[in-house]
Amino acid sequence: MAEVKPEEISHPPMEQLQGFEYCIDSNPPWGEAIILGFQHYILALGTAVMIPAVLVPMMGGSDGDRVRVVQTLLFVTGINTLLQSLFGTRLPTVIGGSYAFVVPIMAIIQDSSLAAIPNDHERFLQTMRAIQGALIVSSSIQIILGYSQLWGIFSRFFSPLGMAPVVALLGFGLFERGFPVVGRCVEVGLPMLILFVVLSQYLKNVQIRDIPILERFSLFICITLVWAYAQILTAGGAYKHSPEVTQINCRTDRANLISSAPWIKIPFPLQWGAPTFSAGQSFGMVSAVLVSLVESTASYKAAARLASATPPPAHILSRGIGWQGIGILLDGLFGTGTGSTVSVENVGLLGSTRIGSRRVIQISAGFMIFFSMLGKFGALFASIPFTIFAAVYCVLFGLVAAVGLSFLQFTNMNSMRNLFIVGVSIFLGLSVPEYFFRYSMAAQRGPAHTKAGWFNDYINTIFSSPPTVGLIVAVFLDNTLEVKNAAKDRGMPWWVPFRSFKGDARSEEFYSLPFNLNRFFPPS
C-alpha cells in the first residue's frame, strides 16, 4: 500500500471561503440581485412578525396595534440595514429585531404601575412609551463603546480559538427556534425542511441559462410551494376540528394581519407619544444591549467569512457597533417594541445561496422600507406561518454554527488546552441558558429574583444568551490558561494582521467607506 502523504490527509487553512460567485464587493446582475434581495426580506419577516406577536398582546395591544408594530419594526430594520451596510461594518448583514430584549421588556410589561391601567389601549401606549425610553437611554452604551473604540480595544483579547465557540453558539444556541417549532405543525414544517435541503443542496447544480436557479432561489421557491400547500390544507378544512394550538401554528388565516393592516401607513418617530424614562427600566435594558453587542460581534465574524471577506479589523468592528447603537436609538424613537441585532438567519442565507454581495442586502432593505409602508401587501407576506420559517432556520442556524467551528482550522486542535477551552465553553454556553430557560418556564420568573429589578434583568438576560455565556467562558479561559508560548496554538499568527485596518491590504477593498469618506474618517 502506497504511503499516504500529509497533504492528502489534511486541508490547508483558508482565510477566505471559496466557491462564492459573488463576494462582498461584487454584484450579481440586477434581475438576480432583486430576487435575492426579496429572499432576504421574506426571511427577515419571521422575527419581525414573531416578536410583536408575543409582546403586543401582553402589552394590551389589539390586532391593529400589532400590525403597526410589525410595520414599524420592518421599516426601522430597513433603515438600520442600509446604515450598517453603507457606513458601519459594510458587511452584508440585516439589522433586525432581537429576542435578547424580551427579558427586560417583559419586566417593563409586568411593572405594577403599568399593569394596573384598566384600559387595554392606554396600557399598550404607556408600556410602549416606557420601552421606548429604556431603549433610547440604553442605546448610548453601544454608541459609546463603538465610537470611542473601547470595543475594538477589548476585541484584542479575541483569538480564533476564543471566537470559534462564540460564533458556533450563535447558531447552536437557537435550537429552540428550529425543530421544536417545526414539530408544532409537522405536516407543514417537515415538507418545508426536506424540500429546502433537496433543492438547495442535492439539486443545486441544476442550471437555467448558466444560473444555478435552485441553489440561489431555493428559499423563495420552497416558501411559495409550501405556503400554497398550507393554504390548500386550510381551505380544505384540514384543521377545522384541530386544537387551538394546532390551528395557530398551521392555518394561514389566523394571523389577522391582512384585515387589520391599513393600505398605506408610514411609520414616524414618536408615533406612540412622548417616551417615558425610568432609571431602573433603563438599567435593565442595558443588559440586553450588551447581549446584542456580543451576538452582533459574533455575527459580523460569521458574515465576513460567508461574504468571502477577511475578518473585520478592530476599528471596523467598533464602527459597526456604534452604528448599531444608533439603530437601537432609532428603535426607541420609532417604537419598534424591541431592540436591534444582526439577523442570524440572514447571515446563514449568505452561505446557502453562496452570494455574499453587499448590494443584495441593500436591495432587501429597500423591500423592507417599501412594504412596511404598503400595509396590506406587507401583511400578506407577513402572514406566512412561522412553522415554515422554523424549518428554514434548522438549516441556516446550523450553517452559521459550522462557520464558527471553521475558525478552529487556524488553531492546534491536538492541544489538550485548546480542547478543554472549546469543549467547556460550548457545553456551558448551551447548558447555562437552558437552565435559565427551564427555570423561567417552571417558575414564571428567572433564577435571579431579588428586590433590585434591574439586577434581575442583568443576570437573567446575560446568562440566557448562549453566545454571551460562551464569550465569557472562552475569552476568560483563553487569556488566563497556560497563555505563555500558546500564541501559535491559539491561531494568533493568522489573526493578528487583521486587528488593524492597515494590517492586510484587502481591508481597504472590503471595508472602506463609500463616497471617499475615508478622507474625513481615516481608519486606524
UniProtKB/TrEMBL annotation:
Its main location: membrane. The keyword Phosphoprotein does not apply. One of its GO terms (cellular component) is membrane. The chain crosses the membrane at residues 38-57, 69-87, 99-118, 130-151, 157-175, 182-202, 217-239, 360-382, 388-407, 419-438, 458-477. Pfam families: Xan_ur_permease (PF00860). GO terms for molecular function: transmembrane transporter activity. Signal peptide: none annotated. It is found in: Membrane. PANTHER family: XANTHINE-URACIL / VITAMIN C PERMEASE FAMILY MEMBER. This is Nucleobase-ascorbate transporter 2.
